[in-house]
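Service request form, structural biology core

Requester: graduate student, group of Dr. S.
Request type: structure prediction, single chain
Budget code: on file
Notes: please return the result as structure tokens.

Sequence provided:
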Amino acid sequence: MPLARTATPDVSIVVPIYNEVDNLPDLVKRIAQAMAAQPLSFELLAVDDGSTDGSRARLRELAATRPWLRPVLLARNYGQSSALQAGFDRVRGRYVVTLDADLQNEPDDIPLLLQRLETDPDVDMVSGWRKDRQDAEISRKLPSRIANKLISNATGVHLHDYGCALKAYRRPIIDRIRLYGELHRFIPSLAKEAGARIAEVPVRHHARTRGVSKYGIDRTFRVILDLILIVFFMRYRQRPLHAFGGLGLWLAAPGGLILLWLLIVKLLGHDIGGRPLLLVGVMLVLMGAQMIVAGLIGELLTRIYHEAGGAAQFHAEEYVPDEGSTMAPAPAPTAQAATETIA
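Core staff response, request fulfilled:
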């Protein structure tokens, strides 16, 4: 039974699309078939990221007879992270699922991920693992294995497959994260930062049969730069002085020792004006001082941001016992106890 557009669905499926006109009819059909095999209602947010091959017109045609299909048309090509965030901003379901539009992900695996969320309250995010990946060994599999190992060790979120787009989340996790740049590769790390408990399940993977891959070798270098950003974000976002100040101390300390040594040499009557070591010592001290000052400025900006009502420093939920709980309410404090508490 088609879902009325005014109804609130249980599941919101977000699919970023860029020049996938040949895959769209099959993609929409297979997602509908997969979701019909399970009891949860759904909506499909198809986010067109400035396609130039007729994908936008095809989405309009498909949505005309499918109330559960909600095309989101971006003004130009902004990138996958922005496309995903555009979808996340519009989700209505209590579960959110993402997958790619190239049909290398298997839509029939969506109920598998949703079942894990439904049956395991200790899991907030389920990440797909392309255990039997159907890609070229050298050009795709090997760089992916290296990247997965590097990201896992750097972020502490140990997954076999960071690059699998097929993932499912509880809605509060999606509400807590923001994507920009190319951070879509690090959604598990951002989710962990937002308090998510993550599980990984094997999913099927298919070779691309239509369309052209959007990934190139230059992606490897961008991943390294983005990894530096995400590690800094996870470890030092709320304490930048520890990052910049720590590096500054490591630079200034040897510089100070060098200058102290040269001072002793000078006091013993030796000339130090022409020694390269003097320049090294001065440069290390100045660089260290600059890094410490940068850390202090970062701390001031962080304080201003949070005190002005920026993003929350933590995420928490209050436990409310079930109505049938037999737990007795806590006794009201006595006047003496209240006085002691105030004191």
